[in-house]
Amino acid sequence: MADITERLDEKADTPAADAKRRLPRSAITTLSVALVLLIWEGFGPYINPVFGSYPSAIAMAFWEISRTGKLWAALYESLQPFVVGYFLAIAIGVPLGLIVGRFRTLDAALGIYITAGYAMPLVALVPLLILWLGLGFKVKVAVIFLMSLFPICINTWVGVTAVPKSLIEVGKSFVASNTVILLRIVLPATLPYIMAGIRLAVGRAVVAMVVAEFFTTISGLGAIIINSANNFDTATMFVPIVLLMLMAIGLNSLILLFERRVAPWQAEISGRDKE
Amino acid sequence: MGEINIVDLSKNFTLTVDGKTQTVQALNRLSFTVRESEVVALIGPSGCGKTTALRIAMGLESASGGKVTVDGREVKGCGHDRGMVFQHAELLPWLTAMQNVMFGLEMKGMRGQPLHETAMQYLDLVGLKDSYHRRPYQLSGGMQQRVGIARALAIDPTVLLMDEPFGALDAQTREDLQEELLKIHARTHKTILFVTHDLDESVLLADRVVVMQHGRLQEIIPVPLPRPRNDLAALRGSQEFAETRYKIWRALHAAGSTVH
Ligand SMILES: Nc1ncnc2c1ncn2[C@@H]1O[C@H](COP(=O)(O)OP(=O)(O)OP(=O)(O)O)[C@@H](O)[C@H]1O
Ligand SMILES: [Mg+2]
Asked: Where are the domains of chain B?
């Protein structure tokens, strides 16, 4: 018995054994990125450096502003409102989505604002937010918060409505209270949706961060982008842009990793084998 | 303790097919009683309303007409006095086998050492002690079903409602668990109402067999086998077993039935 148990566990830990013969995912991704960089590098230099740039020029510019510490100081400045706004969005969006998804009255009362809020042209509202919150840290947090709140909230909401009725009935049949059903059945069952929302929000939060830096006090990575654009230094302008995209990719995989940790059953149920 | 009265029970489902609403009558004035400590089997063709009757008795579904009472009290919702084994196990996928069993116990207020011990004891009872740490997707269908049985038994309800509890099991495990259920019944005198498609099983386990047809009661057939039923093999060969089995078979094939 112990023998069987062990072998089963081993199988559960390593992704599908038959995938071994195929090219690993990371190799394909690396190949794809290398190809794109190569093509870009090949054609880039023939374009007027004001209108475009290319990898080696961007790398040089990166070296330049990172050596002086300018890039890292800007990143640090940008990350502060990002972290606060983004985590605030998670802390409020998830519970909000859970209760709106679970309780009919709240759905009817609040659902409409959440749907509308998702489509809110936030950029247009930035001036108003500035009037309320000033030009500093607070308004940046607010912009990032508002941009990431809705995808998180809506995804959680959708997830709750997708929880199989039969699982909730398990709770009911053991006389679980509404709170217990919400926290111990609905929440774990919704986790994959919540994580998807949190991942979607990364992109929106990054965009919001730069938008906030453009429209409020010009600062952080946004300032590097604007200033180098004004100086027609396109290569330097690309440095923060590439950095932010890399950051989003990194954050995304970090969240995926976290998801595997908190919801290991999900990958097994939905099957991670792709064609 | 544990008398179930099903009185004139009707249930209509309204469903929409291609934009048209239609009504399905799942139960049509069904009445029968399960006496205290009695084991009753519910048998009938697929779709005749067995699960629906069980769900109403559990309090998961409301009746359209009539009522179910347990010990004289009308069923209005779920209670710790009743335990349900679902037709498709319905384990919580993020919990291990042990945690699934513990879930019901925790809802009853059990904590700490007794919680773990009780859960383990019932897993052992269904032969899954060694798989306690596995999640449902790491268990076979039959193993999942056994965890579901352990989960319902663990809370020690006076009434056990079981929807095809042994349907997904291999012959050997099924026989083991049938025997186990008889032992549990002999020890605890629970009232048990279970659904089955297996004629043999209904005769071996039940005191009476309720045959349903199209949401109605077709016939109630008493099983004259004495308790305790220790030697199931001998019972299977007995005259009474064969006769009762034949009676049930005939009732299932009575006029109106289209199932062979
Ligand atoms: N939620 C529902 N909505 C609509 N119709 C339903 C619903 N649940 C059950 N029914 C219908 O009620 C009837 C009885 O269903 P039920 O599940 O009780 O049958 P059953 O006797 O348990 O069948 P089986 O042996 O296949 O499990 C069926 O015709 C089914 O289509
Ligand atoms: Mg059924």
From this structure: 4-81+158-252, 95-156
ipTM of the complex, rounded to two decimals: 0.90
Which CATH architecture fits B4-81+158-252?
3-Layer(aba) Sandwich (3.40)
Name which of A101, A84, A229 is nearest A168 in CA terms: A101
Which structural domain range is residue A64 located in? 54-273
Tokens of B207: 């005191």
For residue B195, the CA-to-ligand 2 centroid distance in Å is 8
**Is residue A29, in this structure, part of any structural domain at all?**
no
Q: What is the pLDDT along chain A (275 residues), one digit of tens a residue?
A: 444 444 444 444 445 545 556 788 889 999 999 999 999 998 888 888 888 888 999 999 999 999 999 999 999 999 999 999 999 999 999 999 999 999 999 999 999 999 998 888 888 888 899 999 988 899 999 999 999 999 999 999 999 999 999 999 999 999 999 999 999 999 999 999 999 999 999 999 999 999 999 888 888 999 999 999 999 899 999 999 999 999 999 999 999 998 888 887 777 766 555 66
Q: Which of B80, B130, B137 sits opposite A269 (nearest CB)?
A: B137
Which residue has a Cα nearest atom 22 of ligand 1? B51
CATH number at residue A231: 1.10.3720.10
